[in-house]
Amino acid sequence: MISVARGAATDGGTMRPVADMFQPLSRPAEMIHESALLVLAITAGIFVVVTAMMVFVVWKFRRKGPEDDLKEPPQIYGSTHIELAWTVIPILITFVLILVTSRTIGEIQNARMPEGALKIRLVGHQWWWEVHYPDLGIITANELHVPVSSRDNGKRRPTEIVLESADVIHSFWVPQLAGKTDLVPNKRNQTWIEPFATGTFFGNCAEYCGTQHANMLLRVIVEEPEDFEKWVSGMKRPPAVPADGLAAQGRAAFYGNSCVNCHRVDGTAAEGVFGPDLTKLMTRQTIGAGVAPLTPENLRAWVRDPQSLKTGCLMPDMKLADSEVDSITAYLLTLQ
Amino acid sequence: MNPDTYDPNFRMPDPERIGEERGSLTRIIQEMVFTVDHKKLGLMYIASGLLFFVVAGVMATFIRLQLAVPRNDFLDPDTFNRLFTMHGTAMVFLVGMPIIFGFANYLVPLMIGARDMAFPRMNAFGFWVFFFSGLLLYFSYLGAPGLYAAGSAPDVGWFAYSPLTAKAFSRGHSTDYWTLSLLMGGIGSIATSINIIVTVVCMRCKGMILGRMPLFVWLFLVVAFLVIIAMPPLSACQIMLILDRYFGAHFFDTQAGGSAVLWQHFFWIFGHPEVYILILPGFAIASEVIPVFSRKPIFGYPVMVAASVMIAFISLGVWAHHMFSVGMTSVGNTFFAISTLLVAIPTGIKIFNWIGTMYGGKLRFELPMLFCLGFLFQFLIAGLTGVMLAIAPFDWQLTDSYFVVAHFHYVLIGGLLYTIFAGIYYWYPKALGKMPDFKLGLWHFILFTVGFHITFFPQHISGFLGMPRRIYTYDAGRGWDLYNLISTIGVVFQAAGILFFVFNLIYSYVKGKKAGDDPWDAWSLEWATTSPPPSYNFETLPEVRSRRPLWDLKHPDDPDWKYE
């Protein structure tokens, strides 16, 4: 079910779970959409014409009765003129398509980013997304926050995304924002988005990457510039350290167990890099790269046994005692 | 020798009688194992292809059941991933390839007036290598856990992108079964292709110059050349993968500086010609069936030959259109978009020529013709969605989505499988001497066509709505629920159609009408001999003077050779 975590720091605005590529709300998806419409029109035209030819021929020249078997129809072996006609017309159509394609490829791939474009580094993992804002010093996971751009040339605010992978090939795909670009290990790819509408956009990893490929979902939260700045300053504020109570016990349990080997919490001894950064865990909408909404119940279930929510994910069942599950969940809930 | 046990009536066993009488099970098995007859091997190819087709089809049914509703718990993710990997691999290598080779084996010698293939023993070798490569692949379900007790059947997808196949991400032996099976199958395919080429080049009967060969033979000649060019890169990358996995090489090992993209280039240099290796035989069958049931010669024979050769040639230079999203330069993307679009030209010419063949004819809607008409319509759709995928920017949206799944099922089912059905119904009387039952075949056609479109058409739309392929489950509310449910419902109709097909094959063999030598009133040489043909094919080798030798015989007043 698509829903937002209650009490999360940002509400994400309009949810856009239906990622219809024919309702683009961003460049380059809009540019793709334009050429796609042209191609659809041309292919639909060809489809109608050729199907009509087929139906006409099949109907007109059907065997009408046994009298048709007595005499063979006139034997025609071919015609150079007709062959020429149906060679030249497809060549012309193909030529038009070639021009459109080449132009759109160039416009998208060789687009120049204006000064002040936001930069993001996105690293694919089995089966989650690591998100870095190198200029802002922010690290998070599975959700990109970006500002909405403007069609006014002077106020453009596109986002440039560098794509890398820590293990196998993944693919970045948020259909309403941009087409796919793969995250290939040992290769640095790039793409860009320039959304013109706010809201939470949905995407999936689009290159098969192993057991939990299906639950490697990505959300892009597009916000008004001021909301984005608010999110940035919030992300830079380290979470308060719980002084006592269950959360404090949980904190001790978190650092006493092997959690810290894989997870990172900024400014603490937890410096693991194999799992998602938990510094601002509770600002996110989902847990397990979109497998479930980030609610206290789901969080507790995840701490209890991640395999019950996301079979085969690389975080093992830590076999924690019930009291530890409760306290660690309480601690994680303070990370906002 | 002890004289007490001496039996004066003892005779050495007659080698002919080993395994008891003709027709007994052991005798049939013995014949199958020892035969080098191109017709028996051809039928064995087709029969084992159909066997694997049923198995891989059942796997597809499980896939559809899992996806019928969101967050379904019917299958766990690993099982699902194994299913689609095995389904894809089996359908391409154990169904498509053997069935087309079966047709080539059975028909090429008959059509060119030869007594057998050029190398009958190599022919048998090719079959058995293929057959055991199939068994090896499926044995992975039992054998692949290996020493590590991890994994069973391969779960890396049918194109097995590295580094998912590296030791670190694919433990146990499942990937090794996949690799070795494909390596073995490749050897069989190359052997068969060499055989086809040599047969066509050297063993045509008197008068059959290249320009008089049936289009079927032309197309298989082209296919055989494509196999010989395309298979070695596949075998090479399989060997590189084995070296990576077991001998510390780093071709695809990205952790040690290898290249994941290198695998994709190797695989698709094989993989794209492979698509044409599979669809050109479909064209071959359509080019035989459509003229006979239109009662006219093929329209524009030389253009059809030229278009086939052109398709094959261009298909060698389009492979990276499978990789538009991998991060090639804009120049690379543009090149492969252009070369891919060029394929549309000769393919369009072929479709127009088939329509031209029907124009002015007297169309008889027998079973083979019905399936060929289905092929024409569905292949038109597949071709046009192919044009959409060739537009690289559009492909950035469409690739690896359900749109692609729909596209290639329209190519391989709507295109290839329909012509295979047409071919089976068309040559069934020749191979088995009995007519296939029309009513059962009509049910097969109607149910399968309805089911096919119900299953695969909605997948275009779920692709447009952002559904990626190869996901074992999805959330409700993404707009995909309805299309997936419809898709799954279609499977019921397809399965019912297949039941009618299989039943028809058996029923007609037992109860069918006797076919006679030439039930369709056709024109190529295979109809000049008895049904089924004797092991030596022709009593005296024929001599031909035109592309339609039997037309000349039947119409001595108006023979073809006057006009060609």
Description:
Chain A has helices at residues 29-60, 80-109, 225-236, 246-256, 259-262, 296-304, 306-309, 322-333; strands spanning 15-16, 26-27, 118-125, 128-133, 138-141, 143-147, 159-165, 170-174, 178-183, 189-195, 199-204, 217-223, 286-287, 292-293. Chain A has 336 residues and is of the alpha+beta class. Among the domains of chain A are: 29-62 and 77-109; 246-333, Immunoglobulin-like. Chain A is elongated, with a radius of gyration of 27 Å. Mean pLDDT of chain A is 92; it is low at 1-9. Chain B has 15 helices and no strands. The longest helix of chain B is centred in the N-terminal third of the chain and has 35 residues, at 77-111. The interface between A and B is large, with 94 and 96 residues.
Query: With helices defined by DSSP (H or I, 4 residues minimum), what is the helix count of chain B?
Result: 15
The largest β sheet of chain B comes out as: none
- CATH class designation of one domain in chain A: Mainly Beta
Count of beta strands of chain B: 0
Mean pLDDT of chain A: 92
State the end-to-end distance of chain A.
24 Å
Distance linking N and C termini of chain B: 74 Å
CATH fold title of chain B: Cytochrome C Oxidase, Chain A
Query: Count of helices of chain A?
Result: 8
Instruction: Spell the H/E element sequence of chain B.
Output: HHHHHHHHHHHHHHH
Superfamily at the CATH H level of one domain in chain A? Cupredoxins -  blue copper proteins
Helix content of chain B: 55-70%
Radius of gyration of chain B (Å)? 25 Å
